[in-house]
Amino acid sequence: MPGQVELRRDGNIAVIVVDNPPVNALSHDLRTGLIDAFTRARDDATVEAIVLAAAGRTFIAGADITEFDKPPTVPTSMDVIALIDGIGKPVVAAVHGTPLGGGLEVALGCHFRVAAPGTKLGLPEIKLGLIPGAGGTQRLPRLVGMEKAAQMILTGNPIPAKDALAAGLVDEIVEGDIVAGGIAFARKVLAEKRPLRRVRDRDDKLAALRADPKAFEEIVAAHLKRGRGLHAPAAAIKALRWALDVPFDEALRRERETFLELRGGDQAKSQRHIFFAEREAAKVPGLGPDVKAREIRRAAVIGAGTMGGGIAMCFANAGIPVALIETSEDALKRGLGIIEKNYRATAARGGLTEAQVGERLALFNGVTGLDQVAGADMIVEAVFEDMDIKRQVFEALDRFAPAHAVLATNTSYLDVDAIAQTTKRPAAVVGMHFFSPANVMRLLEVVRGAQTAPETLATALAVGRKIGKVPVVVGVCHGFVGNRMLRARSVEAERLLLEGALPQDVDSALTDFGFPMGPFAMSDLAGLDISWRMRKAQGARAEIADQLCEAGRFGQKTQKGFYLYEQGSRTPRPDPEVEALIVATSKRLGIARRPFERQEIVERLVFPMINEGARILEEGIALRAGDIDVIWIHGYGFPVWRGGPMFHADTLGLPYVRDRLAAFARQTGDPRHEPAALLTRLASEGRGFGSLPKG
Ligand code: 3HC
Ligand code: NAI
Question: How far is CA 463 from CA 295, 318, 429, 443, 599, in A?
């Protein structure tokens, strides 16, 4: 294809270079171009070896995901790979960047592979609800062995070049220009008259396993439990098994069939939606290329409690020195102690070396006194959720922080605009709302205040990405996007208890739906006292939760909450005392109890969230429905294979969601259940949230 695949000569070597920016996705045109170029190189008798490489930032990063909603077209990736595989002269893949998915499968179809030092190689299809569909499940185990292949395919995580070399996935790591490296390697192959090694013909790493069928079960067992609710992991395990039991060509045919089946299913559609929504979330109207993020060389975090400690770890993990500021040496010692314990636990699991733990810890500077923010380019406040305390902190920041510094608050509910007003530089103030545990959860709500400057916002977004988060811009309101929708769910969960359900009914309905935890087990984990304190401050009441707190049942930390916990156990056990309390409360309030089907429980919890999401869109608090989905998936464990609450609503059809909400409004008399105007309008127009403009 002119422009996308270049075929040139370097003596007796044909050099094929693909060029399809930004990531050389294996689009229809690229596949056609590759067929043409490889056919010509094959048929040219003066060509003795072929090198395949890519221009730009990466070797082929996979199939073109934008084509997945359309019917497959020929030539397929399988056609390209079959052609390469069958060529009777050496074909060398010279890879750099991120050879992923179909890109790695093309490289696996070549006879040799060399990689640039920083290359990351992987088969991430599982993250899109798929299995590799162009031979990956069959060639990778033959080349690297079943254990490594299962790990790569079932986690979807790429491996660095040096691991790929050790595993036999690449033959050599080449320094300098990757195309020149590929050509030099091809010449070596010719000079040494190395035999062609087709991956499909290899059996040395699988033979032993074939003789011991149980060993396969052991290899995949560890991965099985990760895939709760997902179709792709079980399908991938089945396909890996074919590498042992089924002739290669038949296994390829079955792999392809499975891939296409998954590709057309709702789970993969949902996961594709999230892939693109995450990237869309990074695009913020009004933040053009002219708005430059400031470089953050040093950070400061104020408060070394639950959140501050985790946030400080995020900076240190990205190599950014961080001052951790507390009110007393004792509090500091406690906070730093927890951080160190966390790193040691990671090291004990093999996630970090002792030397790396030392390097990370060396990046922390634990201090007392807010004047210590003086050297920081970004300051994140994570002190108690109390406006007076936050005001005092921000007034001090105004005095001590460098003029260029970004002043961020991690508040969960307080008004970011009011916090900004406590300084003389409201343009420098932004919300950076992390999720607990902050060093683990990937979501970062970036709260744009009325006066937040574009540079401040751009800096918060860039830092968020640098520390490995998925930042999503939200507007100012009580609870922003995530907690505001969570509140809609919590209110409903309590109400279900009063109407006839028990905590275990509600929780299991939601875990069956795909959440890792139900709302009551979650509350027990977080501690019931936190929200109790907040309700008391607002003069609000939650009938059941308040009574539990009044009885000293604060959740796991007191071994009693909505559930019972045995000493040292985190497993919730239903408690007859709680059941009696719930039943008595229903009676006292004159609410007739009735049985609930699981589906009704799920709808009663999830639909009010969707309704709140619709209001959030109406008010412009979120820029797009996809942003809300990303927030719920990365911050609250909404099942990714349902694509987030708003996408889930579109999948169900908005008229159904609207009608159910209207029925809930009649049943409960709660006006919050009246379908939001936006939901009603879209439903009557036969549209979904996904049809709204993207910002
Ligand atoms: N198809 C189509 N578009 C893609 C794409 C793909 N495979 N991969 C990335 N893009 C697009 C992104 O949507 C984005 O577009 P935008 O600028 O319009 O938003 C652009 O390329 C740049 O992507 P990123 O912002 O993600 O760039 P990064 O440099 O941060 O990351 C990457 C690059 C690591 C390649 C990352 O994009 C990625 O992980 N891509 C997906 C890789 C993948 O999943 N491949 C397997 C696909 S399935 C498959 O191959 C099936 C096969 O087995 C048959
Ligand atoms: P925490 O109580 O665990 O920690 C707060 C820390 O701030 C304490 O160690 C305290 O000594 C310190 N502190 C108080 N005043 C200070 C001051 N003037 N200077 C320096 N340090 C001071 O509280 P947590 O849970 O970490 O919450 C902090 C903030 O993060 C709150 O605004 C909260 O709403 C928010 N948040 C909490 C989440 C959670 O799950 N806990 C999730 C997201 C946000």
Answer: 8, 10, 15, 13, 41
Closest CA to ligand 2's atom 40: 436
Q: Is 105 a catalytic residue?
A: yes
Q: Is the C-beta atom of 372 inside 6 A of ligand 2?
A: no
CATH number, domain 299-474? 3.40.50.720
Report the nearest-CA residue for atom 36 of ligand 2: 412
Mutate which of 306, 338, 367, 419 to test ligand 2's pocket (most atoms within 8 Å of Cβ)? 306
**What's the pTM?**
0.94
302 Cβ below 6 A of ligand 2: yes
pLDDT digit string, tens, across residues 375-407 = 999 999 999 999 999 999 999 999 999 999 999
Q: How would you classify the pairing of strands 13-18 and 5-10?
A: antiparallel
Q: Where are the domains of the chain?
A: 5-263, 299-474, 501-588
Q: What confidence tens digit (pLDDT) does each residue in 576-590 have?
A: 999 999 999 999 999
Residue range 327-380, pLDDT digits in tens: 999 999 999 999 999 999 999 999 999 999 999 999 999 999 999 999 999 999
308 Cβ below 6 A of ligand 2: yes
Given 48, 125, 250, 612, the catalytic residue: 125
Top CATH class, 5-263: alpha beta
Question: Given this model, what pLDDT does residue 531 score?
Answer: 87
Q: Which residues of 605-616 are buried (b: 16+ CB within 10 A; e: fewer)?
A: bbbbbbbbbbbb
CATH of domain 501-588: 1.10.1040.50
